[in-house]
Design a protein that fits this description.
The protein has helices at 3-13, 18-42, 54-58, 88-102, 160-174, 183-194, 204-218, 224-238, 281-306, 310-321, 324-328, and strands at residues 46-53, 71-79, 111-113, 118-121, 129-137, 146-150, 155-159. It has 332 residues and is an alpha+beta fold.
């Protein structure tokens, strides 16, 4: 197989299978329907809607491996009396209790309450994990399905729907370029690389945003080799020294970028949510070192390919995407 064909095969192989996704959707749809019923029966809170969130909803989810979890994220939108940020603990416990009613035969240890969501573990079939996050409805951002979403640092006012559209819109734009490189597939590639970075691994939304900025600035080509080289070259040159901001849902001038010491990768929906709020200068430098390693390997892989040294080129791509690249890029 040519390197071009291998990269295209790899980009398809790191996507969960159609059967896996269909089964995940079936299990999630069942949970959604039953959760509405249980909350309504209890009457303590008002569940307005449940929406699929995260990578599965954005079509950027990854094949389940040791480094890559396959979880489905579900946002449970609550409103009315008691549905406040101050009542988060109650909402989490309440949501957990309703989920246990849906699956009375499951072990209680399969339901875990985290800081921001209830985690439900299924031990059979595709062994799906579903994270159900309580969201407090709030229309103040003037966007579709706005709400307060709990995160490790604090509550964030944002929108699941807008985050999904952010990726889908760019995927549609990328279809203007012929060839296999579409935006959601590019995000998968970046996420796969990111998930190999150990303690420097960043959240999925970070990968969405930095890939979107690269796509905005340098676009994609008709092949993976040059597209990935352009993307990692952009990361390398940008260095996270300038704010990464988008204008889809707010005016970029609303972002407070007066503190030069802050690394800013902003939520595409709320100009007050800095995804890299926890980054230090050391984090930035260390992450850039990993980017440089990947860039150098891509550059060397390209050189080997042009010289007809395909085995050496594959070795270099394994430096970027791990040893799984070798197997996942092989011809069926």
């Amino acid at each position: 197989m040519s390197i071009k064909a291998r990269l295209d095969k790899f980009s398809r192989s790191i996507r969960p299978t159609d059967d896996h996704i269909a089964e995940a959707n079936r299990q999630t749809d069942y949970m959604r329907d039953k959760l509405h019923d249980k909350v309504a029966e209890d009457g303590s809170f008002k569940l307005v809607k449940t929406l699929k969130a995260g990578s599965n909803a954005k079509f950027t989810s990854l094949l389940k491996t040791e480094e890559n979890r396959f979880d489905v994220d579900l946002g449970a939108y609550y409103s009315g009396e008691g549905a406040t940020k101050q009542e988060l603990d109650k909402l989490l416990r309440f949501t957990r209790d309703q989920l246990r009613k849906i699956y009375p035969s499951k072990d209680k240890d399969d339901f875990k309450i985290g800081k921001s969501a209830v985690w439900v573990k299924f031990r059979t079939g595709i062994k799906l994990n579903i994270d159900v996050a309580p969201i407090i409805c709030d229309d103040s951002l003037d966007v579709t399905n706005g709400g307060w979403i709990p995160r490790k640092d604090s509550w964030r006012l944002t929108s699941i729907t807008c985050h999904n559209e952010f990726v889908r819109n760019r995927t549609a734009q990328s279809k203007d370029v012929s060839g296999p490189v579409k935006f959601n597939r590019l995000v998968r590639m970046v996420k796969w690389w990111n998930n190999l970075q150990g303690e420097l691994r960043q959240p999925s939304i970070f990968c969405d945003l930095i890939t979107a900025k690269a796509f905005e600035e340098v676009g994609v080509t008709t092949e993976w080799q040059s597209s990935l080289l352009k993307v990692f070259s952009f990361f390398r040159q940008h260095q996270f020294l300038e704010p990464i901001i988008f204008s889809d849902y707010y005016d970029p001038s609303e972002v407070d970028s007066s503190d030069d010491s802050k690394i800013l990768v902003m939520d595409s929906v709320n100009p007050e949510n800095n995804i890299t709020w926890f980054w230090t200068e050391e984090t930035r430098v260390d992450y850039l070192e990993r980017i440089q390693i990947a860039y150098d390997a891509i550059l060397q892989a390209r050189s080997c390919e042009l010289d007809g040294e395909e085995d050496e080129a594959i070795d270099e791509w394994c430096e970027v995407f791990g040893e799984n690249f070798r197997e996942l890029s092989e011809e069926d």
